[in-house]
Design goal:
The chain is an all-alpha fold. 79% of the residues lie in helices and 0% in strands. The chain crosses the membrane at residues 26-59, 71-92, 98-118, 161-180, 186-205, 217-235.
Amino acid sequence: MTVVTLAVLAVTVAVAAFVQGSSGLGFALIVAPVAGIVDPGLVPVFVLASMIPLNLYVAWRERASLDLRGAGWITGARLAATPAGLALLWLIPERSLGLFVGVATVLAAVVSLAAPAFKPGKGAYVGAGAVTGLTETATGVGGPPLALVYQHRPPAELRSTVAACFLVGEVASLVLLFATGKAQTAELGASLLLLPAIAVGAWLSRLIHHRLDARRMRLFVLVFALVSGVVLMVGV
């Protein structure tokens, strides 16, 4: 990895950690397309591993607002769908993974922007968990389905519950990826190198998360995802 690539990724993950720590979503939507552009081999291991310390921090910081019922249904469905996400990695050639990430990112952002308000129930939790297990294992991007479920709930509930669901799912995805040979220990190096950048973004989010306009931040994240996803598809 060149110094320029490392610097680009450091800035990207710091911004992404700040955005997700503040709004509850956005890390993978920001990092996966950029990682796919600079080095497709970083997807999905780098994205998944980088999110673990961030989501651990956010889930602990706002643990009082955690929706245990919703998190339980989402996590169960997400774990059940993880093998299907792994199957996508076996089916999609590495040279085409960038295109897949771009398409998945754009579609997720469009759905999130267009979806009407609704009150989530068991079906919504299970559906979001299943889709997240599929897309996050294959590409590292899994936030939009969960954001859809919690987009009309209090921001603290969204942040804590999404972080907790991500945390369990990311560990499960990485364990399965390593167990089946689709990931190598060396791929974790970039995540370890960029831990300080993640910490900076998370720390900055602590200063403003309680007074941030979550709707505007969510709109910013999804618009960014649309732009970066299109750039990734065009660049393939």
